[in-house]
Amino acid sequence: MRYMNHMPNAEDFEVKCKHLKTALQCHEVSTEDVKRVREFVYRQPVKTIIDNKIAHLIEVKHPKRKKSEETLTNKGQAIRLDYFLRNINYERLLVCQKTFLAALKISQRNILTIGKKKAEGQIIEKRGGDRRSKKYEEQKNSVKKFIGNLHASHYNKVFYRTDNDTKYQNYLKRGAKLENYQPKQIELRNSIKKIKLENVETLLKKYQEDWEDNETFAWYKNLLNERRHPTGDEEETCPESDDVDPELCDCAEEDIGLKI
Question: Which domain of life is it from (predicted)?
Answer without folding.
Answer: Eukaryota
